[in-house]
Each structure stands twice: as C-alpha cells, then as structure tokens.
Amino acid sequence: MAADAPRPRVLMLTSTLPRWAGDAEPGFVLDLARELNTSFDIELIAPHAPGAARAERMQGVPITRFRYWWPHWQSVAYQGGMVWRIRENPLRLAQLPFFFGSLVWVTVQRLRRKPQIDLIHAHWLIPQGLAALVARRLASRPVPVLCTSHGGDLFGLRGSLLTRLKRAILQRCEGISVVSHAMASKVTEIAPGVVPEVIPMGTDLQHRFVPAADPAARLPSHLVFVGRLVPKKGLEHLLDALNQLRQAGVTFSVEIAGHGPLAGTLAEKTRTLGLDDRVHFAGPVSHDSLANHYQRAAIAVFPFVEAADGDQEGFGLVMVEAMGCGCTVIASDLPAVRDVIRNGETGVLVLPCDSKALSAAIRDALEHSQKTSAMAERGRAYALERFDWSVTRRKFGALYRSLI
C-alpha cells in the first residue's frame, strides 16, 4: 500500500462493549478494535444503554450507540447478555424487533456515508451477522462481511429455524472466524463446506496480565473465579467442591468476581453450605483492575459446563488472563478449553459437573505448590506464545486484507 493511500476502513458491529470508562462489561471487542486501529480505521456500532454516551471515543476508537427503545427502558442488552435478559423478563422480547431494526438502520446510514466502509466485521451471527447482511443489501453497497462467532450464538440458540438461519448467515458471509477449534467443527456441522478461520481473542500478556512485581502478593491458599454468573460457568459445582474441602479441613479462601442473573442464587447456596467466611462475591470488576484479582490468587478455577440450552464456552479468555498473571488454572474438560489447557502441562482439566474431581484437583494443587508453580510458569509461556494481542492482531490483520 502506498504511503499516502488511505487506510482501509472497517465497521464493527457488537452487542458487548463497555458502556463507559471503568464499566465491568467485557471489553474484548473494544480491545480488538484498539489493536487493529493501528493499521485500519475502525468504527464501532453498539446498542445504547441508560447512562451511556450516544457517540464517543474509547481507547481511540469512535463508537456510535443506537437507541432501540425509550432510552431509560432499554434493557435487552448487557448485564449477562441478550438471552439472559429476555429470560429474566420475557416482556423484553417486545424490544427485539426494534433492536434489530435500529441496528440495521444505523448500519445502512453509515454504509451510505463517506468515507466509504471497506469491510463489516460483525461479532456474533445473530443478530449482528444477520443485520450486516441485511444492511448491505438495503444500502446497495457490495461491502464484504466478516462474522466472528464467540460461542453462545453457535452452541446455543437451538431449534430447526434458528439452525437454518445460522446456516444461511454462515454461507452468505465472505469470511467467518471462530475463537476455538471446537467451534470450527460446529460451524462445519451446521454449514458443510464453510471453513472458518480460528483466531482466539487476545489479551495483553506483556504489560497488563502479568505476575505481580512482588511475589509476596500471591496468597498460597487463595482461589479466584472471574466471569459472568450464568449456568454455563458451572459455579454451583465449584461451591459443592469447596464444601467438600471445608468438611475435609482444608484451608482456603475464594473470590468470585463477576455479575449476572445467578448472583442471588449462588450467594444463597454459599450461605446454606456455611461457606460465608471463605467465599467472597466481589461483584462486577472493571477490566482495568482484573489483573489485581488474578495476581493475589495461587489458583484460578473455571468449572465450565454445557448449559441446558446447549450454550458453552467458545474459548474462555479468562483462563488466558489468569495464566498470564501466573495462576495455576483448573478448568472443566470441554472441547474449547483444550485450546488453552493441556492437562498436566499448562493447567489441570477435570470432568464437567464432577464436584468430587474438582475438589480433589484443588486440594492437590494446594498441597503441592511447587509442582503447580512450575505448571503455572509453563502456562504463562504457552499463553504468551499463542494468545497475546500481537498474535491476534497479526492474524486478524491478514484476514481483513484478504477480504478487502
């Protein structure tokens, strides 16, 4: 590309984004936009939320947030995700057509304006992938569409109608990417002939998610979980495992960092099991402060499961963040998790939903700290080689250029 040639312009569509500075909503899409903004001109479109700006720049990336309902009653996005927001209150279903229509309309408007958009990058098949395809047709702009699935949209949203819709989206996008090899197999199962790129979401393993400067900051019997409090995280099994450890006289403390619809249920179970003095619910934690929580813990536990609706982890970036900070990681043996954890080498895998196996793995890690410390060191090296932003940025940059 000539030195004075304009940089390609990419329009990202997402429903997951920090609503304001310091927000606890996941920031991986914004982080990706920031990283790619060094070589491309990235713009973001996301749903509005009460208290959020309609238009602003975050980390140097321009963001447009579309309204889809009366401003103070917009409630179908954020805080656990769209599926869970609707399950909490089925009346929110009424907002969905307006959400989709508003997303399509603001995308059409942007496609018709200059400077010209060279690529649409939609995060999630439904609704963003579908909205991108509809918008470019309405705008009469032959813009290539790249759609990235992050897991819930692919593994969940079951049923013949939704499966046919996902197949149609997968077949009509010029590019498809997924965040794990397990998801690539699922894409091919739904849409034979579609071969997606496997590009995990990255994170900053060189400056942010690193071990604490003072090794004494790590508490040898302290555990941490980070994530949304939803069924696929499997936290009820973690509490059962912790109860077994308590009954066996094992010393430990646990911090659960995150928020979601199961917060009340999990807190009540903690009280019922008599774990109040050992388990602390930290609530929502901003992305900027996450590293502090990992750096204090010797062990990070992620007891993921496949939820009743089929939803499961697409990748598990929290495991990578924990590994970057030097934690020993114990996680459930699910297909996507195997991209991150090599059992006995970079972490420990246990059977999903098996609280006894989880309890035994935690106890073994607590009692053999020298062995698990060596494992944590190997885990950090493995994560740095494969999941640092430098790797993700290079792979997405190459994919963008191949599509534009």
Describe the protein.
The chain is α/β, with parallel strands linked by helices. It has 14 helices and 14 strands. It has 2 domains: 9-202 and 388-403, 3-Layer(aba) Sandwich (Rossmann fold); 215-387, 3-Layer(aba) Sandwich (Rossmann fold). Strands 3-4-2-1-5-6-7-8 form an 8-stranded mixed sheet, with helices on both faces. The chain has a 6-stranded parallel sheet with strand order 11-10-9-12-13-14, with helices on both faces. Helix 8 links the parallel strand 9 and strand 10 (253-257). Helix 3 packs across helix 4 (125-139), helix 4 (125-139) packs across helix 6 (160-172) and helix 8 packs across helix 12 (355-367). The mean pLDDT is 93.
In short:
By secondary structure, the protein is of the alpha/beta class.
Explain the layout of strands and helices.
Elements: E1 9-13, H1 28-36, E2 41-47, E3 55-58, E4 61-66, H2 82-88, H3 96-112, E5 119-123, H4 125-139, E6 145-149, H5 152-155, H6 160-172, E7 175-178, H7 181-190, E8 197-198, E9 219-226, H8 235-247, E10 253-257, H9 263-272, E11 279-283, H10 290-296, E12 297-302, H11 317-324, E13 328-332, E14 348-350, H12 355-367, H13 369-387, H14 389-403
Parallel strand pairs: 1-2, 1-5, 2-4, 5-6, 6-7, 7-8, 9-10, 9-12, 10-11, 12-13, 13-14
Antiparallel strand pairs: 3-4
Helix pairs in contact: 3-4, 4-6, 8-12
